[in-house]
């Protein structure tokens, strides 16, 4: 198997997002976690992702009140710009805040130097993207996603989406879409707009496949792409132990038992649960990439290693036999997608 130009390991396959021409590696790097690292650790994690062949990087103003964008941009400025794909998000505008405190309530251990303001207006979309480019220190992003418009559905479709469509037609961005922790509204974006891709977090994993009901078939029929986030369901599928998180909260006992049983089955086949979880989404042809958040270079390298593991058909068959995976759920073949 060939290696990338730095000789770091097996090259990652890539796919095009819809008809946009924007390509993403099958394994992508979510920069949410780098906001909570020391600056040198964040840079090392991004460098490890690059060395692992990852060429798709995702961030957002929400992650660490802009710190994720600043750190990711600083790390990527040393890389050839035409060799990677970068996505960020709009919908939250950051406003300076001098009231002190921190951002732990939102999940980020950073000073509360800004506060978030929901804004899915056309002006808010343009302002958010301009601010993101400033923080990133880069001349462009490739994909822009509407971020969590759950409680702003009308404005997102009426104002934010047309603004993104205009930015795409002007060549400011190459691809547009939406990113959410639900599938219903993402399916509406596929049906009612001309987006290129959606990012669905936590709703298509080994533990739950709600996105298979409508979203994934709709994407396939429309020739659009789905990026999967939260593939470990907040960490439960990475390490199903007592106290593990699931969907941003403590895992219920029945869900924890299910994950533990999955781990027993995959490990009995010589496959870590992490590997099965990473590979599972690629059973559906609409899935273009899986995003993994990593808090260290070690976690990045482990994710790449697990991604490249062969997962034999016997793993999926054993999960089905124990009613841990429904019979109609598609599963990937042995080869890397």
Give a nutshell description of this structure.
This protein has 337 residues and is an alpha/beta fold.
Secondary-structure-based class equals alpha/beta
Structural Rg: 19 Å
Q: Mean of the pLDDT scores? A: 94
What helical percentage do the residues reach? 25-40%
Count of strand segments: 14
User: Strand content of the residues, in percent?
Assistant: 15-25%
- End-to-end separation: 14 Å
Describe this structure in words.
The chain has 337 residues and is α/β, with parallel strands linked by helices. 34% of the residues lie in helices and 18% in strands. It has 10 helices and 14 strands. It has an 8-stranded parallel barrel with strand order 3-4-5-8-9-10-11-14, surrounded by 5 helices. It has a two-stranded antiparallel ribbon with strand order 1-2. A two-stranded antiparallel ribbon has the order 6-7. Helix 1 packs parallel to helix 9 (297-308) and helix 8 crosses helix 9 (297-308).
Which features does this protein show?
alpha/beta, eight-stranded parallel β-barrel, disordered N terminus, 18% strand, 337 residues, 10 helices, two-stranded antiparallel ribbon
Question: Which SSEs are present, and which pair or pack?
Answer:
Elements: E1 14-16, E2 23-25, E3 27-30, H1 39-51, E4 56-58, H2 67-76, E5 85-90, E6 92-96, E7 114-118, H3 122-136, E8 143-147, H4 153-169, E9 175-180, H5 184-192, E10 197-201, H6 215-222, E11 225-229, E12 245-246, E13 249-250, H7 253-268, H8 273-279, E14 287-293, H9 297-308, H10 313-321
Parallel strand pairs: 3-4, 3-14, 4-5, 5-8, 8-9, 9-10, 10-11, 11-14
Antiparallel strand pairs: 1-2, 6-7, 12-13
Helix pairs in contact: 1-2, 1-9, 3-4, 5-6, 8-9
């Amino acid at each position: 198997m060939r290696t990338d130009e730095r000789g770091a390991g097996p090259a990652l396959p890539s796919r095009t997002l819809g008809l946009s021409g924007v390509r993403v590696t099958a394994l992508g790097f979510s920069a949410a976690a780098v906001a909570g690292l020391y600056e040198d650790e964040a840079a090392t994690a991004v460098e490890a992702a690059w060395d692992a062949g990852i060429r798709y990087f995702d961030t957002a103003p929400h992650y660490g009140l802009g710190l994720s964008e600043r750190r990711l941009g600083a790390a990527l400025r040393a890389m050839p710009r035409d060799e990677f794909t970068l996505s960020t998000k709009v919908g939250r505008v950051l406003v300076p805040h001098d009231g002190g405190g921190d951002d732990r309530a939102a999940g980020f251990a950073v000073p509360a130097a800004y506060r978030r303001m929901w804004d899915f207006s056309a002006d808010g979309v343009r302002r958010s993207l301009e601010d993101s480019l400033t923080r990133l220190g880069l001349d462009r992003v490739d994909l822009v996603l509407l971020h969590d418009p759950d409680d702003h559905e009308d404005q997102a479709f009426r104002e934010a989406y047309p603004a993104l469509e205009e930015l795409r037609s002007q060549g400011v961005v190459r691809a547009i879409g939406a990113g959410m922790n639900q599938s219903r509204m993402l399916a509406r974006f596929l049906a009612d707009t001309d987006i290129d891709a959606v990012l669905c977090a936590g709703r298509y994993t080994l533990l739950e496949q709600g996105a298979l009901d409508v979203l994934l078939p709709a994407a396939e029929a429309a020739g659009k792409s789905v990026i999967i986030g939260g593939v470990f369901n907040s960490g439960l599928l990475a390490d199903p132990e007592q106290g593990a998180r699931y969907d941003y909260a403590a895992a219920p006992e029945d869900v924890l038992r299910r994950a533990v049983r999955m781990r027993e089955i995959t490990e009995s086949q010589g496959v870590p649960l992490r590997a099965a979880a990473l590979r599972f989404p690629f059973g559906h042809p609409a899935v273009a990439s899986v995003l993994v958040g990593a808090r260290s270079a070690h976690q990045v390298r482990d994710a790449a290693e697990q991604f490249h593991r062969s997962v034999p058909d016997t793993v999926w068959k054993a999960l089905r036999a124990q009613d841990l995976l429904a019979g109609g759920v598609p599963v990937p073949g042995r080869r890397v997608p």
